[in-house]
Design brief:
Number of strands: 7
Shape: globular
Number of domains: 1
CATH class: Alpha Beta
Distance between the termini: 5 Å
Order of helices and strands: EHEHEEHHEEE
CATH architecture: 3-Layer(aba) Sandwich
CATH superfamily: P-loop containing nucleotide triphosphate hydrolases
Low-confidence stretches: none
Largest sheet: 7 strands, mixed
Mean pLDDT: 94
Strand order of the largest sheet: 1-7-6-2-5-4-3
Strand content: 25-35%
Number of helices: 4
CATH topology: Rossmann fold
Length: 138
C-alpha cells in the first residue's frame, strides 16, 4: 500500500521513486482518476525513474505506447479512454502485455473492468481543492 500527496510538480519525481520502491515486485498498475487528475503526468515521472529513453506521451489514440529503457527492457503504457468494446483489447493482444512481467501502466481501466488480472495494483489519483494530487495504491 502506498499513499502520498504531490503539492507541486517539483515533488513528482520523489513521489514516483517512492512509489516504485513501495511496489518492488508489482508490474501491472491501473490508474483511476478524473480527467486532469494527473495520471499521464505521474506515469511520465514513473517512466523517467525507470530510465525510459523514449518520449513519454499519452497513447489516447494508439491505445498503447511501448517505451524502451536504458536496460533494453520495455514498458507498456495503455490509455483505454476511447475504447468501445473488449474486442479491441483482444485484437490488441492485451494478454501478451498484461502477463509479460514487464511494467504496464493503464489509464482508464474502468472501461475494461473484468479483463484486469487479479494481481493488478489499483492506483487512485485525486485532485484536491488546493490543486495538489493524492495518490493511493492498494
Amino acid at each position: 500500500m502506498f499513499k502520498a500527496e504531490i503539492r507541486s510538480l517539483s515533488e513528482i519525481n520523489t513521489v514516483a521513486e517512492k512509489f516504485i520502491e513501495a511496489h518492488p515486485a508489482d508490474r501491472l498498475f491501473a490508474f483511476y482518476g478524473k480527467m486532469g487528475s494527473g495520471k499521464t503526468t505521474f506515469i511520465k515521472a514513473l517512466c523517467e525513474k525507470l530510465q525510459v529513453i523514449d518520449y513519454v506521451t499519452s497513447p489516447t489514440f494508439a491505445l498503447i505506447n511501448v517505451y524502451e529503457t536504458e536496460h533494453t527492457s520495455e514498458i507498456y503504457h495503455f490509455d483505454f479512454y476511447r475504447i468501445k468494446s473488449s474486442d479491441e483489447l483482444f485484437d490488441l493482444g492485451y494478454e501478451e502485455y498484461f502477463f509479460s512481467d514487464k511494467y504496464c501502466f493503464i489509464e482508464w481501466p474502468e472501461l475494461i473492468g473484468p479483463l484486469l488480472p487479479s494481481n493488478t495494483v489499483k492506483v487512485t489519483m485525486i485532485e484536491t481543492e488546493n490543486g495538489s494530487r493524492i495518490i493511493e495504491s492498494n
